[in-house]
């Protein structure tokens, strides 16, 4: 199996682990990056998912170099944490524009080829915060919860064409995004995680690889928690 895969934000963190896992499984993997030097071993396309034109250009490049995208992993995301009363409208809308509308941009573009091929796999990276909420993350939580409604609507819309749309909801994962937390914050978070540790990016990647595989052909509209039990009872 050597499918054309695109992972947004695949240059570091969870996205890079997903790109590696799918490449190891034999797929041709393209990643998006915004600046700096992308990691070697993948087709790297520069793309800011808040910009429609850049998304269009990135897909064209991937299509030319490795074929229409058959597996899309929408992983790129940001946080701009702030308590509601201090949160500016820009802090709210920019997080939604990246995490939710950015995902809309790439998913919409990817489905063009998938509809033609009458098959496809779409995996969205949400968060435990989508379902449990998190003080100081109203913008992030709203954007990540939006992904669940988005995915489930698309699962209904695209199912008849054998396109599956699923969500992975990680808990706390050891990446740049969580390294900014203080030791106190880290300690208190660990206390609420039944497995009492953060996930590695590879542990999130395993679930994505499964959802993208033939073994998951009958799974669509699912939200898979990879959170050490943090969100138990979702
Ligand atoms: P990182 O901050 O390490 O990486 C974020 C990635 O998203 C980078 O590749 C970054 O690109 C990319 N990105 C951000 N904004 C844009 C944009 N506008 N256009 C294109 N790419 C963009 O985060 P993680 O690896 O930790 O997170 C990956 C995903 O997992 C995110 O969606 C995050 O919300 C989610 N998640 C993370 C958790 C965690 O504990 N770490 C928990 C739950 C969910 P660049 O390098 O150019 O900045």
From TrEMBL:
Active site: 140
GO molecular function, one term: NAD binding
Enzyme Commission number(s) of this protein: 1.1.1.100
GO biological process: fatty acid biosynthetic process
Ranges where the Ketoreductase domain occurs: 3-176
PANTHER family the record matches: 3-OXOACYL-(ACYL-CARRIER-PROTEIN) REDUCTASE, 3-OXOACYL-[ACYL-CARRIER-PROTEIN] REDUCTASE FABG
Function summary: Catalyzes the NADPH-dependent reduction of beta-ketoacyl-ACP substrates to beta-hydroxyacyl-ACP products, the first reductive step in the elongation cycle of fatty acid biosynthesis.
Protein name: 3-oxoacyl-[acyl-carrier-protein] reductase
Protein source organism: Streptantibioticus cattleyicolor (strain ATCC 35852 / DSM 46488 / JCM 4925 / NBRC 14057 / NRRL 8057) (Streptomyces cattleya)
């Amino acid at each position: 199996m050597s499918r054309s895969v695109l992972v947004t934000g695949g240059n570091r963190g969870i996205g890079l682990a997903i790109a590696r896992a799918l490449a190891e499984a034999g797929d041709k993997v393209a990643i998006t990056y915004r600046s700096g030097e992308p990691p070697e071993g993948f087709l790297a396309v520069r793309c800011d998912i808040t910009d429609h034109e850049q998304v269009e250009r990135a897909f064209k490049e991937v299509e030319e170099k490795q074929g229409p995208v058959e597996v899309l992993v929408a992983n790129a995301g940001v946080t701009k944490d702030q308590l509601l009363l201090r949160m500016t409208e820009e802090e709210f809308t920019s997080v939604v524009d990246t995490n939710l509308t950015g995902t809309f941009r790439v998913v919409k573009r990817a489905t063009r080829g998938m509809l033609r091929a009458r098959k496809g796999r779409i995996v969205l990276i949400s968060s435990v915060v989508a379902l449990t909420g998190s003080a100081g993350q109203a913008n992030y939580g709203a954007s990540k919860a939006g992904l669940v409604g988005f995915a489930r609507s698309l699962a209904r819309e695209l199912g008849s064409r054998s396109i599956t749309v699923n969500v992975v909801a990680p808990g706390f994962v050891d990446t740049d995004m969580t390294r900014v937390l203080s030791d106190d914050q880290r300690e208190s978070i660990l206390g609420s995680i039944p497995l009492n540790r953060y996930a590695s990016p590879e542990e999130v990647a395993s679930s994505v690889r499964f959802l993208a595989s033939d073994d998951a052909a009958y799974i669509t509209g699912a939200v898979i928690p990879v959170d050490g039990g943090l969100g138990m009872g979702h």
